Amino acid sequence: MCSKADDMRVKFFQYDELRFYGFALSLGVKNLLRNRFRLGPKKTIGKITQPINSYTRFPEYYYMNKIIADRISSSVPRRVTRVLDIGSPKCFGLYLAYHFDIEIHLTDIDPPSVEEAEVLWNAIKPAREGKQFFPFRMSGHQITLKRNLTSSIRCP
What pLDDT, in 10s, does the model give residues 13-36? Predict the structure, then answer.
C-alpha cells in the first residue's frame, strides 16, 4: 500500500523530472570540472544553475525516452538503434547516448549549438555506453547526410 508521501511524489513528479534534471545538472558540473570555462563563464554557470531551460521539456524527454527505450528493448540483438536528432535541445541526445547503446547523430542549423554539445559530450564521454556522433551540419537550406545522401529543403 502506498503512503500519502508516495502518492504526492507520484503526482508531483510524473515525468521523471528528477532523473532528467539530475543528468543535466551532473553534465553541467562535469563540464565545469573537465572543460573549465571553455563554453564561457555565462554558459558554463548556466549549465549548473539552469540545466534544463524549461519545465515543458520534461514531458517531451519522458515520452521520447519511453518510446526509444521500448524500441531498443524490442529490436533485434546486435542491430544498432540509430537516432537522428534534428534541431532539438542537445541535452536529451546526450542523455540517450549516455544511457543507451545507440548511435545518435545530432544536427542543428546553428553550428555553435552542435559545437557546444561536442564540448559537453567530451565532459561525460569516458563513462558513456552509447555512441555520439556530430558529423552533420545543417547550412542554408540543405542537410547533408552520411554516405553522400543529400536531402534538400527548399524555402519558398
Answer: 899 999 999 999 999 999 999 999
